[in-house]
Amino acid sequence: MSEQLLLVSLPSSAAPSGGDPQTQLDKWLAENLTIPHQEFAHFDIPSFKIGTLDNLVQQSEELAKYDGQLESIASKAADIINSLYDSENQIKAAKVIDNRYTSADYLKHFQWNSSKYRVDKSIGELVDLITKEVFSLDNDVRTSYNSYSTAKSNLSAVDRKQTGNLSVRSLHDVVKREHFVLESEYLRTVLVAVPKASTKEFLASYETLVPMVVPRSAGVIAEDSEYVLYNVTLFQKYVSQFVAKLRDHKWSPREFKYSDTLVADLRKEQAVASETERKLWGEVVRLSKAAYADIVKGWAHIKALRVFVESVLRYGLPPNFLTSIFVVPSGRLEKIEKILIEKFGYLGGNAFEKDTRGRLKGDSDLHEYGALVEADYKPFVLYVLPAV
Fold first, then answer.
1. Helices 260-315, 53-84: inter-axial angle, 10-degree rounding
2. Side-chain half-sphere of 105: how many Cα atoms within 13 Å?
3. Same fold? 43-164+267-323, 177-257
4. Rounded CA gap, 103 and 5, in Å?
5. What does the record note on quaternary structure (predicted)?
6. Can you tell me whether residue 266 is helix, strand or coil?
7. Looking at residue 192, what DSSP letter applies?
8. What is the DSSP letter of 329?
9. Rounded distance, CA 363 to CA 355, Å?
10. DSSP 215
11. Residue 259 and residue 261: Cα distance in Å, rounded?
12. CA–CA separation, 386 vs 109, rounded Å?
């Protein structure tokens, strides 16, 4: 399972008293979630231009949609990189952001890029700018990868022609001009791959399979561990009948009309396919590495906008909230969410009421609230981020 991060936004008033709110919140989280304090980081979000409440609600819906789309695009970009390399070390080296960060480290060290995405623009303008950039990168990467995949498939098909026995493999590197009767109006050369166990039967009978087979014309062109490849000359009018008789005897006729140009082209085919595959691999590697970093950055910026909008809708104006991001220890996500709801559930109002002892109403295992813990809704802003 890939690494996950938890991003939580809480109103400043929710932080324990005793000092800087962000520091106190991180301290409480570290102690109560039993995660080392140094694992927590502040997800830096500036203050954006806020329009009307209706605008915020609409932007909340749009950001939820774009957040999911950009996360999926980032994941697909990572999958493409994974498919291009053979070793984990190569994959890790390719998925580096700003020459030093993994996606998880970038998210933990996130800072809004104000020079690229100016905060004097409206939220709608920023969303439009970021998403268009990411969608364009995604299209470029997919187009490049599809071209590479086609070239790779072509190379595999060419390589398959070079393998197998004489009954199936390409013959361009086996036959020569002298193996064929060429430029004859009446005669035609037929190639046939005969299992080694049947060669005596073939030599004894091929001349009588159909009329007008040139006597003693069968010659050995090549052989492998399973088959012997023969050429046989006969009159053109009996070729189709001869081929049918070969198949009846379980011998394999090989369709091959010799020409110097065809043989030369087939010999070039492997080299051309290999060179094309190598060239397109290099192109998609360069593009996917650069695009992956920019896609992850774009997704992180959309996430920041979503956290901001959701926090304003949840906690009100002026914007005054705290953000913490940290890696979730394996298998601990559900427990961590329950602890957070136990502490901050009051932010959800009556649905998360506490009793006189400060505990959520219901039993101590939160069975009554289990469905809420699993649902999308939380009494505060909380997102699980995969490290793509």
1. 150
2. 10
3. no
4. 10
5. V-ATPase is a heteromultimeric enzyme composed of a peripheral catalytic V1 complex (components A to H) attached to an integral membrane V0 proton pore complex.
6. helix
7. E
8. P
9. 11
10. T
11. 5
12. 15
Question: d(Cα 378, Cα 7) in Å, to the nearest integer?
Answer: 13
CA 269 – CA 131 distance, rounded (Å): 42
Cα separation of 74 and 298, whole Å? 9
Q: Determine the Cα–Cα distance for residues 233 and 215; give it in Å rounded to an integer.
A: 8
Bridge partners, 7 (sequence order): 325, 383
For domain 177-257, the CATH architecture is 2-Layer Sandwich (3.30)
Q: Calculate mean pLDDT across residues 348-368.
A: 53
Q: Are 91 and 82 in contact, with CB atoms under 8 Å apart?
A: yes
What distance in Å separates the CA atoms of residue 175 and residue 231, rounded to the nearest whole number?
10
Domain boundaries, the chain: 43-164+267-323, 177-257
Q: Tokens 């060290």 sit at which residue? A: 109
CB atoms within 10 A of CB 49: 12
What is the CATH topology of the domain spanning 43-164+267-323?
Answer: subunit c (vma5p) of the yeast v-atpase, domain 2 (1.20.1460)
C-alpha–C-alpha distance, residues 361 and 376, integer Å: 20
List phi, psi (to 5°) of 295: -65, -45
For 177-209, how does the pLDDT look when each residue is reduced to its tens digit (9 = 90+)? 999 999 899 999 999 999 999 999 999 999 999
**Exposure string for 205-236, b = 16+ CB within 10 A, e = fewer:** ebeebbeebeeebbeebebeeebbbbbbbbbe
Rounded-to-integer distance, Cα 292 and Cα 275, Å: 25
Helix 53-84 / helix 123-161 crossing angle, nearest 10 deg: 20
- Across all residues in the chain, what is the average pLDDT? 90
* Rounded Cα distance, 284 and 340, in Å: 43
DSSP state of 101: B
CB 221, CB 169: distance < 8 Å: no
Matching residue, tokens 């490049």:
144
Q: Look up residue 332 and give its DSSP letter.
A: -
Alpha carbon distance 21, 41 (integer Å): 14
Inter-residue contact 176 to 189 (CB < 8 Å): no
The residue written with tokens 């809420």 in the block is 372
- CA pair distance 72, 135, nearest whole angstrom: 11
Cis peptide, bond prior to residue 318, ω within 30 of zero = yes
pLDDT at 285 > cutoff 60: yes
